[in-house]
Design goal:
- The chain is mainly alpha-helical.
- It has two domains: 1-61, no CATH class; 84-310, Hypothetical protein af1432 (Orthogonal Bundle).
- 55% of the residues lie in helices and 7% in strands.
- It has 14 helices and four strands.
- It has helices spanning 42-50, 63-78, 85-105, 109-127, 131-140, 147-165, 173-181, 192-195, 203-209, 212-222, 228-236, 257-272, 283-292, 300-310, and strands at residues 5-9, 23-27, 30-35, 55-59.
- A two-stranded antiparallel ribbon has the order 1-4. It has a two-stranded antiparallel sheet with strand order 2-3.
- Strand 2 (23-27) and strand 3 form a beta hairpin.
- The longest helix has 21 residues, at 85-105.
- It is globular, with a radius of gyration of 20 Å.
- The mean pLDDT is 89.
C-alpha cells in the first residue's frame, strides 16, 4: 500500500458536510480523486457499500485534518440510530488510534486535554454496551506492533475490565479510561531506535525501556494532568503481584487495583502482538500461558473476571 495515502472507513464520513480533505479511491494500483469534499451524501455511501467499497483514502499529509474531523464528529456518529453498535465500536477504535498518534507527536497539555474529550466519549460507548457488544468489541481489536493500537487496546480492555471489577462500586470509569489509554505515554521519551527495534533489546536498551513508567508519571504531572487513576496505571502497569515487576518490584498488597488491571490487559495484548522474535499467540494460547505460566503475576480474582468478560 502506498504510504502517501491513509485508508478511511466511509462510515466515518458525515453526509453533506464540508470535509477538510480530499477523498481518493483506489482503482487498480492508482489513487484517483473521488470527491472535492462536497459531494459525499448518504446515497453516495450506500451506493459504495452496495458495490463492496468500504474504504476511501486521504493523503497522508492531511492526517491532522482527518483527526480534527473525526474528533468533531464522533458524538454525532455515536448518536446515529442507523449505525450498528459494531460499526460505532470500529469508529471509536479508529478515532482513539488517530488521537493517540497525534498525542504521541506532542504529549503536551493541550493535546492531553483534547484526548480526554475523545476518551470520555469512547468510555460512554463502553458504558452503553451490553455483554454481547463488549465481546464484539474485544473481537474487533487488532494486535499490531504499533504503540498507538496497543494503547487503544489497553484502554478499551482495561476500561471494560474495570467495569466488571467495579460493577458494585462508585468508580469514575471516565477517569479510569483516560488513565488506561495513557498508561504508556512515558514511551514518548524513549528513543525510537529502541522503541521500534525489530529484534530483542540488549540489556542496556532494556534498562532504558524500563524507565517509561516513571517518565509517563512525570509527563502527566508536568502538564498538569496527573490523576490518582493515571498515577496507578502509568507507574504500576508493569508491577507484578509476585514482586517481580518494575520499576519498584512491588508485591500484591502494594499495587493499586487499577495497576493490577492495567498489568493484566497490557500483558494479554502484548502476548497477542506479532514480533520479529515472537509469533503472535491466539487469545486461547495467551490466556493459557497467563493461567499456567504467569499465575503469580496477576490477581487471580481479576483474572477470573477477565475470562468472564472475554467469554
Amino acid at each position: 500500500m502506498d504510504s502517501n495515502f491513509i485508508p478511511l472507513d466511509i462510515q466515518l464520513l458525515q453526509p453533506e458536510d464540508e470535509k477538510p480533505f480530499r477523498l481518493y479511491i483506489l482503482l487498480g494500483d492508482r489513487f484517483v480523486p473521488y470527491s472535492q469534499g462536497d459531494g459525499f451524501t448518504e446515497e453516495t455511501r450506500q451506493r459504495l457499500l452496495r458495490e463492496g467499497i468500504h474504504t476511501l483514502h486521504i493523503r497522508a499529509d492531511e492526517k491532522h485534518a482527518l483527526q480534527a474531523y473525526m474528533n468533531g464528529n464522533l458524538q454525532a456518529i455515536l448518536a446515529d440510530p442507523s449505525m450498528s453498535h459494531q460499526e460505532k465500536s470500529k469508529i471509536v477504535y479508529d478515532t482513539c488510534t488517530y488521537q493517540l498518534e497525534k498525542l504521541w507527536e506532542a504529549p503536551e497539555a493541550k493535546a492531553i486535554e483534547e484526548s480526554k474529550g475523545i476518551f470520555r466519549q469512547s468510555v460512554d460507548h463502553v458504558i452503553s454496551s451490553n455483554r454481547d457488544a463488549i465481546r464484539d468489541m474485544v473481537l474487533m481489536i487488532t494486535h499490531e506492533t504499533s504503540i498507538y493500537t496497543h494503547s487503544v487496546n489497553v484502554g478499551l480492555l482495561g476500561t471494560n475490565l474495570a467495569r466488571e471489577v467495579y460493577s458494585d462500586a462508585d468508580k469514575d470509569l471516565h477517569e479510569i479510561g483516560y488513565a488506561m489509554f495513557l498508561h504508556d505515554i512515558g514511551k514518548t521519551r524513549i528513543d525510537l531506535s529502541i522503541l521500534n527495534k525489530p529484534g530483542r533489546l540488549t540489556n542496556e536498551e532494556w534498562e532504558v525501556m524500563k524507565s517509561h513508567p516513571e517518565a509517563g508519571y512525570q509527563i502527566l504531572e508536568g502538564e498538569g494532568h496527573l490523576t490518582d487513576e493515571a498515577t496507578s496505571t502509568t507507574l504500576q502497569h508493569h508491577e507484578r503481584c509476585n514482586g517481580e515487576g518494575y520499576p519498584k518490584g512491588l508485591n500484591s498488597s502494594e499495587i493499586d487495583e487499577l495497576g493490577k488491571i492495567c498489568n493484566l490487559v497490557d500483558t494479554y495484548d502484548a502476548l497477542l502482538a506479532d514480533r520479529v522474535y515472537k509469533t503472535a499467540l491466539s487469545p486461547y494460547q495467551a490466556l493459557k500461558i497467563m493461567k499456567e505460566e504467569m499465575q503469580g503475576q496477576f490477581d487471580q480474582q481479576m483474572f477470573k473476571e477477565f475470562l468472564y468478560m472475554l467469554y
